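User: Show me a protein chain along with its predicted structure.
Assistant: Here is one chain, sequence first, then structure tokens.
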Amino acid sequence: MAIEGTKALKTVRNEAQAQELINEGWLLLGLFDRQDGTDQYVEYHLGFPKKPRKVKPVYFCQNGCDRMAKVEFQ
């Protein structure tokens, strides 16, 4: 999604929060592995499009690629 087509950007650190936003029409733009001292977590970067569009599901590697997680779009 081009920046011109983006209405808002948001970053969350929780898979459930990311899924809730995706269910509301946000698009997953990227996943980033972060470390803050001894804490390690994933940041989910999402964008809300100016014009809603239909998007295919995305699969991403989770837990060191032990399993694939499906990002669901409605």
